[in-house]
Amino acid sequence: MSRLRGAICGIVAAGTGIAAAELLAAAVRPGAGPLVAVGGAVIDATPTPVKEFAVRELGTHDKPVLLSVIGVVLILLAATTGIAATRWRAAIPVGTGVLGAAGAAAALSRPAGTVLDAVPAVFGAALAGLALWWLLRERRGAADVVRENGVDRRLVLRLSLLAAGAGVAEAAGLTVSGQRENAAGKSREAIRLPAAADPATPLPNGIAADFTTPNANFYRVDTALTVPRVDPSTWRLKIHGMVDREIELSLADLLRRRLIERDITLNCVSNEVGGPYIGTARWLGVPLAALLGEAGVQSGADQIVARSVEGMTIGTPVATALDGRDTMLAVGMNGEPLPLDHGFPVRMLTPGLYGYAGACKWVTELELTTFDRFDAYWVERGWGQQGTVKTASRIDKPKPFARVEAGTVTVAGVAWAQRRGIAAVEISVDGGPWAKAELLPTASIDTWTQWRFSWKATAGPHSLAVRATDKSGAVQPEARATPFPDGATGWHTISVTVG
Ligand SMILES: Nc1nc2c(c(=O)[nH]1)N[C@H]1C(S)=C(S)[C@@H](COP(=O)(O)O)O[C@H]1N2
Ligand SMILES: [Mo]
């Protein structure tokens, strides 16, 4: 009984402290709530294979799952502290001290963290300690008087008070962050994007309806547990480092420049063969080459380190910004300001590079430096420095393990080799000879190419494999490679049943 009592007291006290800490963070340091800080620190410290596993198995559920795991660990630690404290009061400062220190350390370890970020965790831990002490304090000699049928009414009253207080704090915290979210959404809606001085060429006739990925369906991959809410009126971009002149720009400055609009396919290096982390959008943005020209890139600088508001670093080869491709600071996606999830108000985009190497979202700083001098976030974790997209292809129709009717079956999908373009796509049935698929019209060498193939399907189980050849003549290799460290290879092969 006293164990259960201790556990409940520990959990309620911890809940009170956490709710208060989250409210304080929501009010004064958005994004520095201890739960999210611990989650972020866990993400950064997670070994790459585990991260890969999480992205593969959990997809976009990886973040809720992570937060739930942290919640369970917290409950266990809080219960343990409570149980220990029923016998040994020193467990209170020890337990809450450990939790507070962990929260504070996590907040301080965030790349964009400041000393202030540790305050909510310390405050919450102190409050949790006081609450636990209050819950376990007994009026000397009075214990027997207030106990009826084994229920300690005074304790129940105190627990209810604290739980109610935690509930109110939690609700207030959610209201505050909800309001901020609304404000970010509203300021996004208020933005009027100028037309492009250099618009995209209209999509060719006969292009398939699903060539462009709607924003709502566009994949999302990032380490941000809560989507950064950037106030566009105070947002600044600083270009500095190995440049002749530092540049600082507001969003209005950026929107006054010559804008280009391009169809570009973006994909994630973590995408497995046949995976979903790829999409094509019509992007509006400022060519980076022009800005770099004004800043004057010094000789020797071979890396642009983009930093985002939440401290992500993405290293892009300088050459890929100056070799004539449409590397840009994007402000628009499919005719709208960038969605909050996709980097509002400004992100980088580098045709031909995986997202981790060329597409920093919520970007606020570009530092010209060298690859020798600095490893960006993913490179530090073993991923390749250059991030060049590999030639690849995917079967979208039929779905793996589908059952189809015998006769002519349309097999269809996409192939991509941004910067090189797709020259051919071939299909092999049951490991037989390769046959050419029909290529649909596409926008440019920086977008995917849709293809289809008429298959005379006969009854029985079959396998279908696809491979692409890019315009440099390179054939997509058969050998399977994992996404780590520089992108998956291998033919997408599916099994279907006919009949
Ligand atoms: N700030 C920030 N930018 C980021 C990332 C991130 O974690 N943080 N992830 C990168 C990765 S790995 C990819 S694949 C693309 C995904 O962009 P999307 O979410 O708009 O599809 O964003 C890139 N830019
Ligand atoms: Mo990625």
TrEMBL record:
Keywords of the record: Membrane, Signal, Transmembrane, Transmembrane helix
Example GO molecular function: sulfite oxidase activity
TM helices/strands, residue ranges: 65-85, 92-112, 118-136, 156-176
Signal peptide start and end residues: 1-21
Domain Oxidoreductase molybdopterin-binding residues, every copy: 225-378
Entry-linked InterPro entries: Ig_E-set, OxRdtase_Mopterin-bd_dom, OxRdtase_Mopterin-bd_sf
BP-aspect Gene Ontology terms: sulfur compound metabolic process
PANTHER family: SULFITE OXIDASE, MITOCHONDRIAL (PTHR19372:SF7), SULFITE REDUCTASE (PTHR19372)
Name used for this protein in its record: DMSO/TMAO reductase YedYZ molybdopterin-dependent catalytic subunit
